[in-house]
């Protein structure tokens, strides 16, 4: 893009971002909100073009579009108590983990191979395994090569923000339109419990001094990016007893500085990961605690609830990882032909599917028009993607959770579970963990389910439903709620709230996110 056009384009985006900020920024109230639930009618056209097929910035898009990360940035400029950057750990899915580190040249070959095999892959992100801006030469060289070889792919960067203000101009120069900043605190006393040290301006800092520098740099970088019209998502790790209540203040601070979306994620702290928090026995939040905090913050700003806390070399739809299909060994003998026309044709079909899904949802919502019920229920869904109920109960590795009411179906998160079907047989221990994870849900919508798990779900007060197999998720969830509401009104069933207390009384623990 010529410099003059880029300058004009940036000015228009600046004006659009200022308009959004004047209208309460990313407030979830009203019809002009932004973020993961926004549709084409909610945003200025230029911004909608940036988010409509970005699976992280649009909850609706994540059903249809894929992303990939390339692990070209091994070094980091700080230490987090929840992080342990491991390598050669293909079965572990969490940030900082990779199987192979790549050079920029290897990365672009992998990008072309993935984009050719997965035409719905629309976003390339660099997120580690260290910090991309602690490895600026490798990071920006990779973006430069990818932009030349595959100009239709969006560029995305994820950073801890310590070095961010120094590279905002470079980020803009390379047309990186999406930046994620991990901000876990704005109070240095809280930060001192999360970060042992930072390395800044050739010096190591510790304690509150380190956290003060980090926070100031993060917020400065966020403001600089939003002033240039670059969309920013803020990630925050929820650490019970340390920053869980404080994240409400973080939410207000990042919204005030123009953040587009806030993603509050649960701490991953299993001892086997070798993190400081894991070895100390610091617990992560329950799914219910996470939802409560997200709900509290959503009054100020739209929340991302569909995050999967991806590996630094993740490939595919959110919730899946196909990175082992594209290892350096496999790419060495593979001939890659980048077919832009085929990619565009495929994505046109995806857009037709999205329109059909939106229309189906609206039809169901019309049937609820005028309903004044205050009832809300949680519904779990087994899906392979595409926004449809298309997964067998026994094959599900996670369930997507929707809160359904008279106003519609709202995605609120996902619950990872142990695989129930093992070699054709149901695993009773796995079923127990599934019941724990779904203990606050009224129903689970599946493509198919066997007699044994169906009976166990019913006994736990969870309605197993396979009548909507293959249909759109939100349309089906609303249809189920409409039927549920009618049964309650006729007195055929009694509505029961299924919160934490009810789960514990029933002998079920709250599920983990």
Q: Largest beta sheet, briefly?
A: 7 strands, mixed
Rg to the nearest angstrom? 23 Å
* Low-pLDDT ranges: 1-35, 87-93, 500-513
The CATH architecture classification of the largest domain is Alpha-Beta Barrel
Report the CATH topology name of the largest domain.
TIM Barrel
Give the strand content: 15-25%
Query: How many beta strands in the DSSP annotation?
Result: 17
Return the average pLDDT rounded to an integer: 82
The CATH homologous superfamily name of the largest domain equals: Aldolase class I
Distance between the termini: 42 Å
Structural class from helices and strands?
Answer: alpha/beta
Q: Can you identify the CATH class of the largest domain?
A: Alpha Beta
Task: Describe the structure in your own words.
The protein is α/β, with parallel strands linked by helices. The protein folds into 2 domains: 3-25 and 37-331, Aldolase class I (TIM Barrel), CATH 3.20.20.70; 369-505, Dinitrogenase iron-molybdenum cofactor biosynthesis domain (Nucleotidyltransferase, domain 5), CATH 3.30.420.130. It has 16 helices and 17 strands. The strands form 4 sheets. A 7-stranded mixed β-sheet has the order 9-8-5-4-3-1-10. A 5-stranded mixed β-sheet has the order 13-12-11-16-17. It is globular, with a radius of gyration of 23 Å. The chain starts with a helix and ends in an 8-residue tail after the last helix.
Task: Summarize the topology.
Blueprint: H1 3-22, H2 45-51, E1 66-69, E2 78-79, H3 104-117, E3 121-126, H4 136-149, E4 154-159, H5 168-173, E5 178-182, H6 188-191, E6 197-200, E7 203-206, H7 207-227, E8 231-238, H8 247-256, E9 261-266, H9 276-280, H10 287-298, E10 315-316, H11 328-332, H12 340-367, E11 377-381, E12 398-405, E13 408-416, E14 421-422, E15 425-426, H13 428-437, E16 443-445, H14 451-459, E17 463-465, H15 473-490, H16 500-505
Parallel strand pairs: 1-3, 3-4, 4-5, 5-8, 8-9, 11-16, 16-17
Antiparallel strand pairs: 1-10, 2-6, 6-7, 11-12, 12-13, 14-15
